[in-house]
């Protein structure tokens, strides 16, 4: 208390502490800037003092001001001073300030290198932690280079607190200094199996981030991650791994196949939405990458869509949004599955949240079909009416038009309906998209001949009601539609019923308030109208009426002649003169209509964008031939103008050059083509994939939609599109009936219109499509443009530099400075030798090529692979992945009916929220444990984790009650089960002497039913160099080591590496077995040469290799239904054990069984779980694990009784240690 | 994660953490733009928005907005979880946290964040571990302060 008071008074001795500053700023709201500049002056004074506490206080205040937007870069040096304070209190403040305001441009940053290095190696873990945290924010390429090695060392720090920070910051180091990636990677990979879950998850994080950017380099890690995925219960980690797989699958479709099952399992079982969402996204990605080769994954898609539906139906806006987002990804490849949820998506249009509505709109675009277009658009039209805010309404409008016009109006079956929709859209006030509607009207009216009459009547109505549309013209985009209306009425005036009325509407004085370009179209088209009226009247012999109309024109046109718009004025005066002339002729009673109408004769047709190109070259015209001699090569560009005139003159002389011999011509043509090909600006006539219309050079070939409309064309009044929906339904119904009827007659009516008529009415997509075909413009590309994705890669992309092959062994030159480290990648086969480094340089390309090949014909290849045996180590590696990939998990294949009491319980419910258990207590203890250990034990520590673990367990027994309290508390923490399991290692000690320590792990080989792989880690404990290591075992009848061909059973297998002092590495050996129902023990010897300064000695180490039955099992996921069937099959033998005195949680217990005995949990309900595994020889092993108060009972069923009893014995042993 | 911003309903920045190197000018521009966009959104709207080539995930707690920028492929829900977790951490540390706590102890808020996230990645998923690290660091600071207090 007294101390605190002293401290308080000392605080007050400072001019102002942070709190004072904040308070001060809050109290000076009116003159904040002034107050702050005053404060900054004070701070500058404080910084000049020698007292580090005062400085730190000043820097702390500066950091606050920095956040408010004030520049504090001038204090960078003072920040470094505070960073280097010896007291943690100040150091912390210094590093915080640095992390907030240092960046690559800060010049004093290079002064920090040594200080940071010092802090990194501080005995106080919080000093190190603070330095690492700070560094993560301001690491520069220089800092990364200089400190990479220090940080790499920290990755093996005794304290997980430091390890995890070091691992995470390595990612930033890689980004700044890509050269560090290869030397650091082996250790990073090692951290994937770190005993501390935090470190492990950090390593997963980093590798996943790396792999996402350059997935192909990490493909070889897939098996490891797969294992992690199936064993991890930490959702944060799972999400990362699953995301990583999402990036890997496009490169390796087989991986996708393998993933589908575990992912769908997760989707079924998880209660965490974030994980579910990630799984769904990855499954979608997988299915997209598989879409070509895998037809029967509709179940997975269905599952995804189902789950997404649940998300969308959720009241949580966020889930709704994400559900729609993911749905749109499915839509691209599996539109049908999404279409069935149309109702739901339409519902989302009613959502209060605009972002959700927009997502739903995106989805609708892809969901329309001929059947539902009208319905969907009808709904959208309702929303247009209701919509508040012009932005959203405009969005709706464009979407409606997009939806309807997509792929050449593919989904529109009734164009009258579409025109009515467009007309209805014109009633929207204040939209910016008038031109869009206008363009659609023009397009439809021109291209759909049959609709013209209807279109014209509608447009006439629009013109008549122009005052409604153009009420506030200038800022109203909708008046654009009048442009289209006027043109359509003019151009197709022959369809107009009341031409007079329309003409009058166009001549209203109000028209002059329209924008100039619209008036111009008005003027032009009223003459067309006038001409057709004239003709009509003349033919009817109504001379007076004809004169009247002329008079009307002459009276009204002058208002346009006065227009300020040049175009309008010019056209109007021209036309006025013309009509005055006509009037004169009319007075003389000369029939003029024919001549006037001739002014606008001829039909305008839409021209396909590529039409020009398709004009056939007339016979005898050689477009490549020179019209005149090409200028000589020496001719410079300056002379060009001259040649142009020259050109003109000589044009006619072309036929006069027959003396040019064919050969010369051919040569020049070739040269010219060459030149064109190399000139990127020359637009080539690339051979069109579409067929050429050779025979019809005109416009006849341009497809025009011809539809026989069976609905009455005349709709009184302003039409409502709704009517068409109803009519269309009736029509379709009628057609269906008709079609059914006609089916019988069809043979008779083979030809002509009838057939066409009939086919139009069927609802299948193909039938109508050809009628709507219109050419679409595609963007031209120079011929030599590469179709590569390189374009979209930013050359400045920081991740590009990390595209590094990690499988290549390290060259000496690549090693990080200082550290001597050679921990090459784990070698996968015993036969392989360490290849010379030079050999590897060309590897990546080769590897990729291989890959592609393999993907092409994986089926056949598999067979071949077995024969084409190991040639090179890299090949081997490649195969290992193949190997792993080709072993698809067996979906409960042997399924036959029977009944089992335990299955019903197991299948009963989803284990929701089951994983929510807290394990912090234990972690904490571990950390303490580790903390107490002196750094001497650093190296041994990992290997000793087993002992540690058991210690932990004893402790946790004591604190059991305590941890239960926490469990209760943690449940409210939300949906994530993030507290991971205690560390476990499957590596057991093989043998050890003062020189070397070996640990081993046995993994079954699913592809070969009589092989297991033994991975042995060799660790050099001495200060000498170990070389010429050779491993040999005494084969038993049942179990034999796989030796290279030609060697005898007594030969050892050389370990393919040497070990410098303190280094460990892993080698793998393959064993063949005949029977796997019993555990085996093999005696063996490891011989090696120890080399040091004094010379070299030969040493031996004997060991016993224990093949437990569990090592023949392969963790295999199993669906609960498949599992139930298996149990019911009756082929399995049963056996049980019971173990007492179990104190660890059920979750731990299951994890132990999963990890050590290679099982996977099928289902878990409370304290009862069903588990499954499979042996390499295909024995099914099913377990039902029940936890009582202090005991565990395990009922097992297996196809082999001996195997089962052995397995249970092993389990008993494991559990009794708990 | 690219960066995290905390700002008040009035648009005042309360905390900023950048995991990508950007110039001060750029940071200010982004902050201004995002604060405006997020504040303009209605309470019933979902917490995600697409912004430039990033996704913004934000959530409002009392008068404070927590706003994170993530990349295209990142998981929005886990980001929300991160925000929530951070709020819980603040809450535990300060004992029902309020805006003023963060204003007056902004450096603590940073320290907690730094223990929770590193370089934009989650480094510690256990709340207990984060708080323990902070408490111990505080303890260290406290004892040093006392030493210092006594000696000066």
Explain this structure:
The complex is a heterodimer of chains A (1218) and B (152). In chain A, a hairpin with a 6-residue loop joins strand 2 (996-1004) and strand 3. Chain A is an alpha+beta fold and 1218 residues long. Chain A has 51 helices and 15 strands. In chain A, helix 2 runs antiparallel to helix 3 (32-48) and helix 24 runs parallel beside helix 26. Chain A is elongated, with a radius of gyration of 41 Å. In chain A, strands 10, 11, 12, 13, 14 and 15 form a 6-stranded antiparallel β-sheet that branches. Chain A has a 5-stranded antiparallel β-sheet with strand order 1-2-3-7-5, with no helix packed on it. The relative contact order of chain A is 0.05. The longest helix of chain B is centred in the C-terminal third of the chain and has 25 residues, at 127-151. Chain B has a 5-stranded antiparallel β-sheet, sandwiched between helices. Chain B contains 5 helices and 7 strands, in the order E-E-H-E-E-E-H-H-H-E-E-H. Chain B has helices at 24-40, 76-94, 99-104, 106-116, 127-151, and strands at residues 3-8, 13-18, 48-51, 54-61, 64-70, 117-118, 121-122. The model of chain B has no long low-confidence stretch (mean pLDDT 86). Chains A and B meet through helix 1, helix 2, helix 4, helix 6 and helix 8 of A and strand 2, helix 2, helix 4, strand 7 and helix 5 of B. Chain B: Residues 1-140 form the AP complex mu/sigma subunit domain. Chain B: It is a peripheral membrane protein. Chain B: Pfam families: Clat_adaptor_s.
């Amino acid at each position: 208390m007294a101390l605190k008071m002293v401290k308080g008074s000392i605080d007050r001795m400072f001019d102002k502490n942070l709190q004072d500053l904040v308070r001060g700023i809050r109290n000076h709201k009116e003159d904040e800037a002034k107050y702050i500049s005053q404060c900054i002056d004070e701070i500058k004074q404080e910084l000049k003092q020698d007292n580090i506490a005062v400085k730190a206080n000043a820097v702390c205040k500066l950091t606050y001001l920095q956040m408010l937007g004030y520049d504090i870069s001038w204090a960078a040096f003072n920040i470094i001073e505070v960073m280097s304070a010896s007291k943690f209190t100040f150091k912390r403040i210094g590093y915080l300030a640095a992390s907030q305001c240092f960046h690559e441009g800060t010049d004093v940053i290079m002064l920090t290198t040594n200080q940071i290095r010092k802090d990194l190696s501080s005995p106080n873990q919080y000093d190190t932690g603070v330095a690492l945290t700070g560094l993560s924010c301001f690491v520069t390429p220089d800092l990364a280079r200089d400190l990479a090695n220090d940080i790499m060392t920290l990755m093996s720090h005794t304290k997980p607190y430091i390890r995890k920070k070091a691992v995470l910051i390595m990612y930033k180091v890689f980004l700044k200094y890509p050269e560090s990636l290869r030397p650091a990677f082996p250790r990073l990979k090692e951290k994937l199996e770190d005993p501390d879950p935090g470190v492990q998850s950090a390593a997963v994080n980093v590798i996943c981030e790396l792999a996402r950017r350059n997935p192909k380099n990490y493909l070889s890690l897939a098996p490891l991650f797969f294992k992690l995925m199936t064993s991890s219960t930490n959702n944060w980690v799972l999400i990362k791994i699953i995301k990583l797989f999402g990036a890997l699958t496009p490169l390796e479709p087989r991986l996708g196949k393998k993933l589908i099952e575990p992912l769908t399992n997760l989707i079924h079982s998880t209660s965490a939405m974030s994980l579910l969402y990630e799984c769904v996204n990855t499954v979608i990605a997988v299915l997209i990458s598989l879409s070509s080769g895998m037809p029967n994954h509709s179940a997975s898609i269905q599952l995804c869509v189902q789950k997404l539906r649940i998300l969308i139906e959720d009241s949580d806006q966020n889930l709704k949004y994400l559900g729609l987002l993911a749905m749109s990804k499915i839509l691209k490849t599996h539109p049908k599955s999404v279409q069935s949820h149309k109702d739901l998506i339409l519902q989302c249009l009613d959502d209060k949240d605009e972002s959700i509505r927009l997502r739903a709109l995106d989805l609708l675009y892809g969901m329309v079909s001929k059947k539902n277009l009208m319905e969907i658009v009808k709904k959208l039209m309702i929303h247009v009416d209701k919509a508040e805010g012009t932005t959203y309404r405009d969005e709706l409008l464009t979407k409606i038009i997009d939806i309807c016009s997509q792929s050449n109006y593919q989904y529109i079956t009734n164009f009258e309906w579409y025109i009515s929709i467009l007309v209805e859209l014109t009633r929207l006030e204040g939209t910016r998209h008038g031109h869009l509607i206008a363009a659609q009207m023009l397009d439809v009216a021109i291209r759909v001949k049959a609709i013209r009459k209807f279109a014209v009547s509608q447009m006439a109505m629009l013109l008549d009601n122009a005052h409604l549309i153009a009420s506030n013209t200038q800022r109203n985009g909708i008046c654009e539609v009048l442009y289209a209306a006027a043109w359509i009425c003019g151009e197709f005036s022959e369809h107009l019923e009341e031409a007079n009325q329309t003409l009058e509407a166009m001549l209203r004085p109000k028209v002059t308030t329209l924008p100039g370009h619209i008036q111009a179209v008005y003027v032009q088209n009223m003459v067309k109208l006038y001409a057709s009226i004239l003709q009509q009247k003349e033919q009817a012999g109504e001379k007076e009426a004809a004169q009247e109309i002329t008079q009307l024109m002459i009276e009204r046109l002058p208002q346009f002649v006065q227009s300020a718009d040049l175009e309008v004025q010019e056209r109007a005066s021209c036309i006025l003169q013309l009509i005055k002339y006509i009037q004169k002729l009319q007075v003389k009673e000369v029939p003029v209509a024919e001549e006037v109408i001739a002014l606008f004769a001829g039909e305008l047709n839409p021209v396909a964008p590529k039409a020009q190109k398709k004009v056939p070259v007339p016979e005898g015209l050689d477009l490549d031939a020179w019209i005149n001699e090409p200028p000589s090569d020496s001719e410079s560009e300056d002379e060009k103008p001259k040649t142009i005139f020259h050109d003109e003159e000589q044009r006619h002389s072309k036929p006069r050059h027959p003396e040019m011999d064919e050969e010369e011509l051919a040569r020049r043509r070739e040269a010219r083509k060459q030149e064109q090909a190399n000139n990127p600006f020359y637009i080539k006539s690339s051979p069109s994939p579409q067929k050429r219309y050779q025979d019809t050079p005109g416009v006849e070939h341009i497809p025009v939609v011809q539809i026989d409309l069976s609905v009455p064309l005349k709709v009184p009044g302003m039409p409502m599109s709704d009517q068409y929906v109803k009519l269309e339904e009736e029509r379709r119904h009628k057609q269906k009936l008709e079609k059914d009827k006609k089916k019988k007659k069809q043979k008779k009516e083979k030809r002509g219109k009838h057939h066409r008529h009939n086919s139009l009415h069927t609802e299948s997509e193909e039938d109508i499509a050809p009628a709507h075909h219109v050419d679409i413009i595609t963007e031209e590309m120079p011929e030599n443009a590469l179709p590569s994705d390189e374009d979209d890669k930013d050359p400045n992309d920081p991740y590009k530099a990390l595209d590094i092959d990690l499988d290549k062994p390290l060259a000496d030159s690549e090693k990080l400075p200082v550290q001597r480290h050679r921990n090459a990648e784990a070698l996968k086969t015993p036969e392989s030798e360490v290849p010379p480094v030079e050999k590897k340089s060309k590897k990546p390309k080769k590897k990729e090529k291989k890959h592609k090949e393999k993907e092409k014909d994986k089926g056949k290849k598999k067979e071949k692979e077995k024969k084409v045996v190991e040639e090179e180590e890299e090949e081997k590696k490649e195969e290992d992945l193949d190997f792993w990939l080709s072993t698809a998990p067996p979906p409960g294949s042997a399924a036959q009916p029977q009944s089992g009491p335990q299955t019903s319980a197991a299948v009963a419910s989803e284990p929701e929220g089951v994983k929510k258990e807290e394990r912090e207590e234990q972690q904490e203890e571990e950390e303490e444990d580790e903390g107490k250990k002196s750094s001497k034990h650093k190296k041994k520590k990992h290997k000793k984790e087993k002992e540690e673990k058991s210690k932990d367990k004893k402790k946790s027994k004591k604190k059991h009650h305590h941890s239960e309290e926490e469990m209760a508390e943690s449940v409210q923490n939300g949906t994530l089960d993030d507290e991971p399991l205690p560390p476990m290692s499957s590596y057991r000690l093989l043998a050890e002497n003062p020189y070397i320590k070996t640990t081993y792990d046995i993994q079954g080989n699913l592809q070969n039913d009589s092989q297991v792989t033994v991975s042995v880690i060799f660790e050099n404990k001495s200060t000498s160099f170990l070389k010429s290591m050779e491993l040999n075992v005494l084969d038993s009848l049942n179990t034999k080591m796989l030796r290279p061909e030609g060697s005898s059973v007594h030969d050892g297998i050389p370990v393919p590496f040497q070990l410098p002092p303190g280094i460990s590495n892993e080698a793998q050996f393959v064993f063949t077995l005949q029977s796997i129902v019993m555990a085996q023990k093999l005696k063996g010897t490891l011989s090696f040469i120890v080399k040091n300064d004094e010379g070299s000695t030969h040493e031996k180490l004997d060991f016993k290799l224990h093949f437990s039955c569990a090592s023949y099992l392969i963790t295999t996921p199993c669906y609960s239904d498949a599992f139930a069937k298996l149990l019911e099959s009756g082929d399995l033998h049963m056996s049980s054990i019971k173990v007492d005195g179990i104190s660890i949680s059920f979750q731990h217990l299951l994890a132990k069984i999963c990890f050590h005995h290679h099982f996977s949990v099928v289902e878990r309900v409370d304290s009862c779980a069903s588990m499954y595994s499979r042996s390499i020889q295909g024995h099914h092993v099913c377990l039902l694990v029940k936890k009582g108060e202090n005991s565990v009972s395990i009922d097992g069923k297996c196809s082999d009784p001996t195997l089962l009893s052995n397995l249970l014995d092993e389990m008993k042993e494991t559990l009794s240690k708990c | 994660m690219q960066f995290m911003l905390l700002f008040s309903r009035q648009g005042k920045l309360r905390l900023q953490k950048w995991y990508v190197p950007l110039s001060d000018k750029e940071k200010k521009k982004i902050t201004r733009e995002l604060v405006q966009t997020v504040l303009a959104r209605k309470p019933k709207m979902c917490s995600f928005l697409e912004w430039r080539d990033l996704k913004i995930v934000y959530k409002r707690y009392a008068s404070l907005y927590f706003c994170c920028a993530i990349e295209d492929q990142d998981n929005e829900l886990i980001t929300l979880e991160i925000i929530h977790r951070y709020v819980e951490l603040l809450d535990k540390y300060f004992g029902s946290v309020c805006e003023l706590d963060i204003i007056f102890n902004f450096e603590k808020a940073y320290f907690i964040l730094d223990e929770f996230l590193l370089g934009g990645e989650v480094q510690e998923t256990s709340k207990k571990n984060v708080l323990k690290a902070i408490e111990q660091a505080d303890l260290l600071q406290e004892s040093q302060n006392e030493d210092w207090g006594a000696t000066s």
